[in-house]
Amino acid sequence: MTLHYLAKRDNIPLEGVEVSVANDRMYAKDCADCTSHSGYIHHFEVQIKLRGNLTAEHRKKLLDAANRCPVRKTLSNEIRIDEKLVD
User: Fold this and answer.
1) How remote is the C-alpha of 52 from its chain's centroid?
2) Residue, of 6 and 32, whose pLDDT is higher
């Protein structure tokens, strides 16, 4: 959605986007370059395929936008979940 909005706003000839996401996790203690050392580290591999008559500059601008999207920001920061039962 973020990429389509940007493409429309900036007249980029984006015809479609395909996104594939794979998720894996490992123990934090086994991750050499992680800042956390307890629990699990979740790893997401995201592949983005852009369709359209796009220049290298268009593709870079769209990838930069994908890196700033709200979902990515949420998943790349610490997440806290508080659960409670309600009647």
Assistant:
1) 21
2) 6
